[in-house]
Amino acid sequence: MLPTDAHFVEYCCLAATFDIFGFATALALASMFEYLGNMAALDTLLERLIETTPPADDPSGRTTFGALDTLRLIRNAADHQIVFYTMRLDELGVAQKAGSTTKKLLIEMGYAPAAAHRIMRIVDALPARPTLARHAGDGRLSTEIVDAIVRGVTHIDKRCPEKLSDDGKGSHEIELLGQALSGATPALVLEHARTIGNTLADATDTSIPAADDSTLNAVNAHTTDDGRVDIRADLTQTIGEKFLTMIDERACPRPEPDGADDRRTAEQRRADALELILDQAALGATIDSIGSPRTQLMVTIPATGDPAALPWTGSISQATAKQVSCDGSLTEIVLDGEGVPLQMGHTRRLFPAHLRKAVVVRDRCCIKCGAPPSHTQVHHIAHWADGGTTDLDNGCLLCQRCHTQVHHHGWDIVMGFDRHPWLIPPATIDPHRRPLPAHNRRTMRLDHAA
């Protein structure tokens, strides 16, 4: 534990009085005193920054704008200092002595995993990028820009048919730095680096064009802090074409049950299309296959009442647990408080082929939006997790998007006396919550059926 400033000064005075320290010890004490001085300066800076507030009287906004720009420079300079302090911590081997890594230590300190990964990437590269380090020190470059330049130089090196020399890397570093200083965003810096890399790869007849080089393929996925999954891919043109074609075929807008235009954004439609592709890949069959279950899941259910969990993405909400149990192969594992299995349930195939075909014959499509059967899952009207039976009168077809709306956004489904499913919209859409017939029976109304 470090002494306070007052204790430290007293300690040094006593040492000087009795002349009990050698020269090396005196240097160490001087270094510690400098450290305490730096910490005091940082603490003072932090206190001043916390107390800073926007000006109350600034009708033109000029003062506020100037302060905001200064705060940007402070933020960039602080990020740059974080990199250098992390570099020093790494050199000292503090985390390694504890059997950990500097990245894990940053995360334990409170840095977001993505930020810790970015810091360590810069730490590893900056000693070889002196020009970049010099320009980043005054706060003009954000850590995102610095990271983009680091990644860009690495990307160019991978694309080059022959390994780049230090001078070659330096020239590309300066070129990307010029892009950044001219106002380019991190994405534009990386795009410029890809352009340089492709040009280098195409410069020789003996090299495989970057667009066709499968050795450059990369797919990365990591779980974010909020439990979502961030997926990044760098693929050959052929694979990319296949992916884009399949996404496009399945991401067409579809009308809402009330006839309104599809309320999803293009990004949301593509995300739904990706899940559909994964479901169809799990089928191991053609796009028109309707017999097999959509997913194969293992759900762990803690006996302590904690949320159920999936192996890869962790804990799930109750609504999600009910949704994934609708149409797939499900294995329940009950865990005790220490995470040891107490009970292993049998894998049960929900809505087998013959029942799914019967549901398809009756519903013909997603009962909410009209998506074809190959795009749908069989939903338990009375949830399977709540004891709902797996039979024709308790199942209906829903595509992934509509399935999510039923489980998470207030839509309800009831089986009518006519043995057909009826949709009940949430009060936000229809305050009276009047039942709507299935998509293939849209011309019907309750009074018609009566």
Task: Based on the model shown, name its key terms.
single chain; 450 residues; alpha+beta; four-stranded mixed sheet; three-stranded antiparallel sheet; 13 strands; 49% helix; disordered C terminus
Explain what the structure shows.
This protein is 49% helix and 13% strand. It contains 16 helices and 13 strands. The chain is an alpha+beta fold and 450 residues long. The protein is elongated. The model is unreliable at 1-33, 285-295 and 446-450 (pLDDT under 50).
Which secondary structure elements does this structure contain, and how are they paired or packed?
Blueprint: H1 5-18, H2 23-51, H3 62-92, H4 94-97, H5 102-109, H6 113-125, H7 130-136, H8 143-159, H9 166-181, H10 186-202, E1 218-223, E2 229-234, H11 237-250, H12 266-283, E3 295-302, E4 309-310, E5 314-315, H13 318-324, E6 328-335, E7 341-344, E8 348-349, H14 353-363, E9 376-380, E10 395-399, H15 400-408, E11 412-415, E12 421-424, E13 436-437, H16 446-449
Parallel strand pairs: 3-6
Antiparallel strand pairs: 1-2, 4-5, 6-7, 6-8, 9-10, 11-12, 12-13
Helix pairs in contact: 1-2, 3-6, 5-6, 6-8, 8-9, 8-10, 9-10, 11-12, 13-15
